[in-house]
Amino acid sequence: MSTKKKPQVTPTPERRRELLATAAEVFAAQGYNATTVRRVADEAGMLAGSLYYHFDSKESMLDEILSTFLDELWQGYDEVLAAGLGPRETIEALVTESFREIDRHRPAVAIYQKESKHLATQPRFAYLADSQTKFEKAWLGTLERGVTEGAFRDDLDIRLTYRFVRDTVWVAASWYRPGGHHSPEEIARQYLSMVLDGIALRT
Amino acid sequence: MSTKKKPQVTPTPERRRELLATAAEVFAAQGYNATTVRRVADEAGMLAGSLYYHFDSKESMLDEILSTFLDELWQGYDEVLAAGLGPRETIEALVTESFREIDRHRPAVAIYQKESKHLATQPRFAYLADSQTKFEKAWLGTLERGVTEGAFRDDLDIRLTYRFVRDTVWVAASWYRPGGHHSPEEIARQYLSMVLDGIALRT
DNA sequence: TAACCTACCAAACACTTGTTAGGGAACGGT
DNA sequence: ACCGTTCCCTAACAAGTGTTTGGTAGGTTA
Q1: What region holds the HTH tetR-type domain (chains A, B) (predicted)?
Q2: Which structural domain range is residue A34 located in?
Q3: Are A194 and B164 an interchain contact pair (Cβ–Cβ within 8 Å)?
Q4: Whose CA, among A108, A138, B141, B181, lies 20 to 30 Å from A8?
């Protein structure tokens, strides 16, 4: 069932984004491999072959979805990292920025979560592995700085802490729905409160 | 490349477990849909058709992998929940038990993480949805009890807290490797320390 | 030795998959 | 009225998919 009301007069680049948005939605819901090109086309209100007027292949759709997401993500991250904040403030800003990206690119984030691990081995998606390396450097570095500067506890395995913080943020994409009760900023605030101060009541 | 040294004299039920173990390993690494039956058979040192002597279908392998995992999981959970512990102690026991299950059934947990969401809609895998409901009831109930009894903070969205705790535990299956530096119990201890008390240094 | 069972192979089947080639309707510019 | 562009359809293809069928080596039992 596709809802198609527009008088099929949509300029080229916008149509691309529309199609990529629906493709991302289906990929995120069903999984990339489990999603057929025919399913995506059906959701877009056209036939499978017609997609190939806009895109080279199914893989190139996935590529474009993930790369545009990562581009925008790093645009925000780099801004935060260049601001010269303290460790705690950097973590807070990164987490907040992350939830904003989840809000904007929820399907892309969900796809990234599920597929990036075995996609990163393919040469075409090598930038996924690059991004992950950069990601680890930024977060782990900030955490280490926080430990030496006395902002964070020093009795924890720092790599465990890194994975803990990283995962808690990004898995949110699996249940987050835009337009829910909480804004991305509010969710970030509560997440940070839990990660930094814990959920136990202080006595 | 399959390593096969045994003189193909293995009793039936054990052979089943062997095959399911390798299938789970491949499913977890490549994704269920992206994994072909031929790939699993190859990893097991036999041809694709030969798998159908042991199993009805590819889907029934997945079914058996997930259901046996969930059976064992709930065996441990029910034991904890029946012990009549306080909220905090219950959470601690559940987390510890969870990491033990990850240690035992890492591939199954990884598969469950990736596929359960869209599998739960299929009638055959309805038990996945049931398990998730039961899961939420146990964890959320314990957290609520902890809030009213003064063990946990009351200024947080309880459902957000639930998802936070739940996710932080289970995503560990994506990076955990048995035989690593930390035992499941040690990982559980540090995770609990972070979740309960936070990563910030108390001043 | 004969009958039998287990665990696999060899070869094919029906179907789905991503993808392509040619064609045509709608529309704007000239 | 003509041309060109945009965007989609029709119809097919080749490769890969899960699965089935018949057969058989090797061990166990009688």
Answers
A1: 13-73
A2: 1-55
A3: yes
A4: A108
Which bases of chain C are under 7 A from a protein CB atom? 6-12, 16-22, 27
Indicate if A141 and A153 belong to the same structural domain: yes
At residue A7 the predicted structure's pLDDT band, cuts being 50, 70 and 90, is very low
User: Separation of CA B118 and C1' C24 in angstroms?
Assistant: 40
Same domain, A46 and A7: yes
Distance CA(B151)–CA(B161), nearest Å, equals 14
Task: Assess whether pLDDT exceeds 50 at residue B1.
Answer: no
Q: Are residues B49 and B68 in the same domain?
A: no
* Mean pLDDT for the stretch of residues A115-138: 95
Interface residue B157 vs chain A (CB under 8 A): yes
Query: Does B190 reach chain A within 8 Å, measured CB to CB?
Result: yes
Asked if A117 is an interface residue toward chain B (Cβ–Cβ < 8 A), one would say yes
Within 7 Å of a protein beta carbon, the nucleotides of strand D are 6-12, 16-22, 27-28
With an 8 Å Cβ cutoff, is A85 touching chain B?
no
Residues B27 and B104 in one domain: no
Q: Are residues B7 and B62 in the same domain?
A: no
Cβ contact, residue pair B151, A182, below 8 Å: no
Contact between B101 and B68 under an 8 Å Cβ cutoff? The reply is no
When divided into structural domains, chain A yields a total of 2
Output the pTM of the full model.
0.89
Q: Which pLDDT value is given to residue A61?
A: 97
- Smallest CA-to-CA distance from B153 within A181, A196, A152 is with A196
Task: Please report, rounded to whole angstroms, the spatial distance between the CA atom of protein residue B155 and the C1' atom of nucleotide C15.
Answer: 56
Q: Which residue of B has its CA nearest to A194?
A: B198
Q: Could you give the percent of chain B with pLDDT greater than 90?
A: 86
Which CATH number covers residue B121? 1.10.357.10
